[in-house]
Write a structure and sequence with these properties.
It is built from 15 helices and 14 strands. By secondary structure, the chain is of the alpha+beta class. The chain folds into three domains: about 140 residues, no CATH class; about 60 residues, no CATH class; about 90 residues, no CATH class. The strands form six sheets. Strands 3-4-5 form a three-stranded antiparallel sheet. It has a three-stranded antiparallel sheet with strand order 12-13-14, with no helix packed on it. Strands 1-2 form a two-stranded antiparallel ribbon. About 20% of the residues are buried. Belongs to the Rv1128c/1148c/1588c/1702c/1945/3466 family. GO terms for molecular function: endonuclease activity; nucleic acid binding; zinc ion binding. This is HNH nuclease. It comes from Geodermatophilus obscurus (strain ATCC 25078 / DSM 43160 / JCM 3152 / CCUG 61914 / KCC A-0152 / KCTC 9177 / NBRC 13315 / NRRL B-3577 / G-20).
């Protein structure tokens, strides 16, 4: 083990800057083989530790819990290593390929499902030659993409239990959300085939409907925006279940001084689930929201609770929908029911809530406008859009022409 660590230290000390494409790939290939061999040794050791009950030495019941607590693995990664180790013990052909560095730890875990006790029992009842299955699946894993290995294993397990009862596919659905220090979230979810198809269909509908000219977002960004747009649509529809007599809504708490101050005001506003955002972001949310004035006393208790006022009354929104017909950002085709009513001059800075001071913008482009982009309606009724640097966004044959100067910023009323 000391020799292995010393070799890794030597590798880490190498200067990669002088290397270029082919040389870097030549260096990478044996590293991947070494990674696979290490993964095999880890899985093999975990399996022996599981059989001997080694986790009990540290007061834990299972190796999966030991890996989570001591190796800081996620729950899914710990389960994967344990499953791979069990597979190595039952599938010698796969074990040999892993020891040679020909299979990844993830492939071993996928094939390892074959060696789960219930599947081994069914295979024995049906006199399945496990050696043949081991060889076929290992050959597929050696030569084909990872997805093909997963498909082959799934096909085998389906055939193994062809006459069994249809399992409830929803039992394995899960969604885990992790909140970070800045209020952003990341997550992991697992859906069955039907649930996944529903999600992909809904997201793809929004992605395709929201495509616009010169869209430089990655596929991942498009899907993330589509998910937020789906939530926006559902919240705006008013059809979600009520919570203690109130319909679900995004709640922002901010002091009046920060709200009217044009500065960014980082960390000035607090969201309903505890995240903090800037005053600028709060002003963006307030564009098409409702405002409730609450006067707080020196002890932090409310002294007065004013009436909640919708900033954009229904008649102004309807008029904007008829006039604009959808998002006015150049090149966007988002429909009206995806859009917020944006105040061209922010209401907190004296802008009136009127049709003349309003523009329909979808969630993504509403964000853009609050980050330096500008839209302006021309006397002929057409909308134009400018980037933060003052150049105009144009579509059609003339879009490659010289940049046009942006409009002057509106003065506060």
């Amino acid at each position: 083990m000391e020799q292995l660590l010393a070799a890794l230290d030597a590798l880490a000390a190498e200067d990669l800057a002088p290397l270029f494409g082919p040389a870097l790939l030549d260096r990478l290939r044996p590293l991947l083989v070494a990674q696979n061999r290490l993964a095999a040794e880890i899985a093999r050791t975990v399996r022996e530790a599981e059989v001997s009950g080694a986790a009990e030495v540290d007061g834990l019941k299972t190796m999966a819990s030991w890996l989570r607590g001591h190796a800081h693995l996620s729950a899914s990664e710990a389960a994967r290593v344990v499953r791979a180790g069990r597979g190595l013990a039952q599938l010698p052909v796969m074990a040999a390929a892993c020891a040679a560095g020909q299979l990844t730890g993830e492939q071993a875990a996928v094939i390892g499902r074959v060696a789960e006790p219930e599947h081994l029992a069914r295979a024995a009842e049906q006199r399945v030659d496990l050696g043949v299955v081991d060889t076929v699946l290992t050959d597929i894993a050696r030569e084909r993409p990872h997805a093909d290995t997963a498909t082959a294993v799934h096909h085998y397990l389906d055939r193994l239990d062809a006459d069994g009862p249809e399992p409830d596919p929803t039992e394995r659905r899960r969604l885990v959300i992790a909140r970070h220090a800045d209020g952003s979230i990341s997550g992991r979810f697992d859906l069955d085939a039907v649930g996944g198809e529903k999600l992909q269909t809904a997201l793809e509908a929004v992605v395709q409907a929201g495509r616009c000219a010169a869209d430089e977002r990655t596929r991942a960004q498009q899907l993330a925006d589509a998910l937020v747009q789906l939530c926006d649509n559902q919240l705006a529809s008013g059809q979600l279940p009520t919570l203690r007599g109130h319909k679900p809504q995004v709640i922002v708490k901010i002091g009046i001084e920060d709200l009217v101050d044009p500065a960014v005001g980082r960390g000035a506003a607090e969201l309903g689930f505890g995240a903090t955002i800037s005053a600028a972001r709060a002003r963006w949310l307030a564009c098409d929201g409702a405002v409730t004035r609450i006067v707080m006393g020196p002890d932090g208790l409310p002294l007065e609770h004013g009436r909640t006022v919708r900033l954009v009354p229904p008649h102004v929104r309807r008029a904007a929908e008829v006039r604009d017909g959808g998002c006015v950002f150049t090149g966007c085709g988002a429909p009206t029911h995806w859009c917020d009513v944006h105040h061209l001059l922010e209401w907190a800075n004296g802008g009136q809530t009127s049709l003349a001071n309003s523009a329909l913008l979808c969630e993504r482009h509403h964000t853009k406008v609050h980050h330096g982009f500008r839209v302006k309606r021309q006397p002929d009724g057409r909308w134009r859009t400018w980037r933060p640097d003052g150049t105009e966004i144009r579509t059609g044959p003339g879009r490659t022409g010289p940049p046009l100067p942006g409009p002057p910023l509106p003065a506060a009323a």
